[in-house]
From TrEMBL:
The keyword Metal-binding does not apply. GO terms for biological process: exonucleolytic trimming to generate mature 3'-end of 5.8S rRNA from tricistronic rRNA transcript (SSU-rRNA, 5.8S rRNA, LSU-rRNA); nuclear mRNA surveillance; nuclear polyadenylation-dependent rRNA catabolic process; rRNA catabolic process; TRAMP-dependent tRNA surveillance pathway; U1 snRNA 3'-end processing; U4 snRNA 3'-end processing; U5 snRNA 3'-end processing. Transmembrane segments: none annotated. Residues 1-20, 199-223 are annotated as: Disordered. InterPro entries: Exosome_comp_Rrp42_subfam, PNPase/RNase_PH_dom_sf, Ribosomal_Su5_D2-typ_SF. It comes from the Eukaryota. Keywords: Cytoplasm, Exosome. Belongs to the RNase PH family. Its main location: cytoplasm. One of its GO terms (molecular function) is mRNA 3'-UTR AU-rich region binding. The keyword RNA-binding does not apply. The lineage of its organism: Eukaryota, Fungi, Dikarya, Ascomycota, Pezizomycotina. It is found in: Cytoplasm; Nucleus, Nucleolus. This is Ribosomal RNA-processing protein 42.
Length: 277
């Protein structure tokens, strides 16, 4: 719990609504073989923190009064070297951990120095439930989505990522701003999207038999000739690393597959709810 040095005016806002700050939640990730300041753990922590703060409900739950607030520290330790890109694993385990997190019950009045009930059974869930025991809202999840050709793959393996043409980290959460309308396609909302540079972009292009002297071909005589011959290699089934950006239609298709009604995000969240219960 932290003490705010300067009391902030919250006129026009109900207590705890829209007064939370992004600095009230911090995340750190430790991966075997990586330093704490290496790009991978820092980037993973930034993506997961961005999704948690984008929904807005979490940081507002950390508000106590104008002088005090909770500060949430999320420390993740991977015990073994990940076999693939660990983003989905970290997101799902963080989701389950936050569902079981609790805050002590506040006994003092709103603007008094906080006094808490030491009875843990009286504590409240960080992500509260209604009278029927149903979650009012849930932590977001971040899914790793890749595309190769016309195929969209979720939670790809290392081998699949090696040939990916586009990779997205898509974060989704519950839509709590308004109740779901009968015609609404889904009760989920898109929180953030991050593009991830696939390792396939760093691989060299393949060499066709027609350009390989070891297989009876003839090597190109100039760089222009080599480029001209490589342009037609895609039809021959020779590997070419992806070039350029992602097509808008492909990005839209990948996002729709995640957030649509009955889509992958709903299946994942329903599965996590079953794990919790």
């Amino acid at each position: 719990m932290d003490n705010d040095d300067e009391e902030e005016e919250v006129s026009g806002k109900s207590a705890g609504k829209g007064v939370g700050e992004n600095s009230w939640a911090e995340m750190s990730i430790e991966i075997p073989g990586f330093r704490d300041d290496d790009a991978l753990p820092v980037f993973l922590a930034a993506m997961l923190t961005e999704a948690l703060l984008a929904c807005g409900e979490l940081k507002d739950r950390l508000y106590i009064n104008r002088g005090f607030h909770w500060k949430l520290y999320i420390d993740i330790l991977l015990l073994s070297q990940p076999l693939s890109y660990p983003l989905p694993l970290l997101s799902l385990t963080t989701h389950l951990a936050l569902l079981s997190a609790r805050l002590p019950k506040l006994k003092s009045e709103l603007d008094e120095d906080p006094l808490f009930d030491d009875d843990w059974d009286a504590s409240a869930y960080l992500y509260p439930r209604d009278s029927a025991g149903k979650r009012l809202y849930r932590p977001p999840v971040t899914l790793l989505v890749m595309a190769v050709g016309g195929n969209i793959i979720f939670d790809p393996t290392t081998e699949e990522l090696a040939v990916a043409e586009a990779v997205l980290a898509v974060s989704v959460g519950d839509s709590t701003s308004s109740p779901k309308a009968p015609s609404a396609p889904s009760n989920l909302r898109l929180l953030s999207i991050r593009t991830i540079d696939p390792p396939s972009r760093l691989t060299p292009p393949g060499v066709a038999n027609s350009m390989n002297t070891a297989t009876g071909g003839s090597a190109p005589t100039s760089s222009q000739d080599a480029v001209a011959q490589r342009e037609g290699m895609e039809q021959q089934g020779v590997w070419n690393p992806p070039r350029g950006g992602m097509r808008r239609g492909l990005v839209g298709k990948m996002i729709k597959t995640v957030v649509e009604e009955g889509g992958v995000a709903e299946e994942v969240l329903d599965g996590l709810a079953a794990v919790e219960s």
